[in-house]
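Standup notes, protein team

Yesterday: finished cleaning the Pseudahrensia aquimaris set.
Today: Restriction endonuclease structure.
Blockers: none.

Input for Restriction endonuclease:
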Amino acid sequence: MTNNDEIPACGLCLRPIPPHAKQSLHHLIPKLKGGRGGPTILLHHACHNEIHATLTEAELARDYDTPAKLRAHPHLAGFIKWLANKPPDFHPRTQKSLRRRKR
């Protein structure tokens, strides 16, 4: 396998993202909070959904603007641990936003 054939790793769960898996780019600072044109990371689509179901745009901009900070969030850390033994192209159904469940 050459460097051009390497499978990228998800910026959240660190598992490989196969070419056929659902994937998306995550703005480390949300576009609505001034992050347009800023740094992005490639994620499994499921990981991206979980981030946005867990954290508000303001929380992301203020406290979770790096992959390491995202991985350290207690809920996301549990999600990553749960996801660890799943196939790289596994796509679970995203639960309702944690904010909505707390109402």
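Follow-up from PR in the comments: The first strand starts at residue 23 and ends at 27.
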